UniProtKB/TrEMBL annotation:
The keyword Magnesium applies. NCBIfam families: GTPase_YsxC, small_GTP. The gene is yihA. Necessary for normal cell division and for the maintenance of normal septation. Gene3D superfamilies: P-loop containing nucleotide triphosphate hydrolases. It comes from Lactobacillus mulieris. Belongs to the TRAFAC class TrmE-Era-EngA-EngB-Septin-like GTPase superfamily. EngB GTPase family. GO terms for biological process: division septum assembly. This is Probable GTP-binding protein EngB. Residues 22-196 form the EngB-type G domain. Its cofactor is Mg(2+). One of its GO terms (cellular component) is cytosol. GO terms for molecular function: GTP binding; metal ion binding. Keywords: Cell cycle, Cell division, GTP-binding, Magnesium, Metal-binding, Nucleotide-binding, Septation. It holds the Pfam family MMR_HSR1.
Length: 196
């Protein structure tokens, strides 16, 4: 799929703020600072559409980006940020769950994990929760440009150690927003899910 246009559409914290034009949606989740904004920007070939920041936990809304006027990428706020209060964390949790569990036009969920480390407790919780949603899931291990070739196998074994990846609806991809490693595969997965 060729990316022809992309635009920020709306930010939402509840259902009545979600876009009204019902198009297929692909959600992206990951803990703060994992590289989610960078992945969105690299996928869309935009420098700064999704905000990249060194201040994790800033984005607290669901951000909808309309692509090719035909589908939405939905940036789910980063979780696992220690500096927000427990009450705030619970609020985020509810917002994320409301969206993921009720949005009928949600066609897939991308869970982003830092390839350099073993999945964190938050990554594992998010993944296990996602398995309950009955959605196509793509686990993306990003920042691969920071990994030596000789360590590539370790990335997969780290994932497998903590995540039960053996499900028909689950795919795994290594990725880099810097080198654009596997950008074409990411694009293909999304294209397949939105069925244009
Ligand atoms: P977010 O909080 O998940 O949206 O994370 P960001 O996209 O803002 O990225 C957090 C930091 O990681 C930034 O300093 C990015 O430049 C860096 N980063 C993100 N993706 C990559 C990548 O694929 N390779 C490298 N080397 N750095 C990355």
């Amino acid at each position: 799929m060729k990316i022809i246009s992309s635009e920020y559409s709306v930010s939402a914290v509840r259902e009545d703020q979600y876009p009204r034009d019902i198009l297929p949606e692909i959600a992206l989740a990951g803990r703060s600072n994992v590289g989610k904004s960078s992945l969105i920007n690299s996928f869309l070939n935009r420098k700064n559409l999704a905000r990249t920041s060194s201040q994790p936990g800033k984005t607290q809304t669901l951000n909808f980006y309309k692509v090719n006027n035909s589908f939405y990428l939905v940036d789910v706020p980063g979780y696992g940020y220690a500096r927000v209060s427990k009450a705030q964390r619970e609020q985020f949790g509810e917002m994320i769950q409301d969206y993921l569990e009720t949005r009928g036009n949600l066609e897939g969920l991308i869970i982003i994990i830092d390839a350099r480390h073993e999945p964190t407790v938050d990554d594992i919780a998010m993944y296990n929760y996602a398995l309950l949603l009955d959605l196509p899931i793509l686990v993306v291990a990003t920042k691969m440009d920071k990994i030596k070739k000789s360590q590539y196998n370790k990335v997969f074994s780290n994932l497998r150690k903590h995540l039960d990846l053996d499900h028909d609806n689950v795919s795994v991809l290594t990725y880099s927003s810097e080198s654009k490693l596997h950008l074409a595969e990411l694009n293909k997965w999304i294209e397949d899910k939105i069925c244009l």
